[in-house]
Task: structure prediction
Amino acid sequence: MPVLRNLIEIVEELKGKGVGFRSINHCGIDTTTASSEMIFSICGTLAQFERRLIQELAQAGLMAARARGKNCGRPKISKAKY
Result:
């Protein structure tokens, strides 16, 4: 999830400049305290894990479908048509 990665990079950059991050929309996300920074890191790690797990499961599903003889994805475009 590039958006999460970008958020983490921005928060780290701000931290390097002595600036803390507090979310107005999500209660408890506040990188100005050690415990809240830990929660932020754990949430980021879990989000990354979930994304990778979805990718792995989707890839396994595609491989299983191909093994059963299914064609996955869009049909190839013939150059003769254009």
Notes: The longest helix spans residues 34-67.
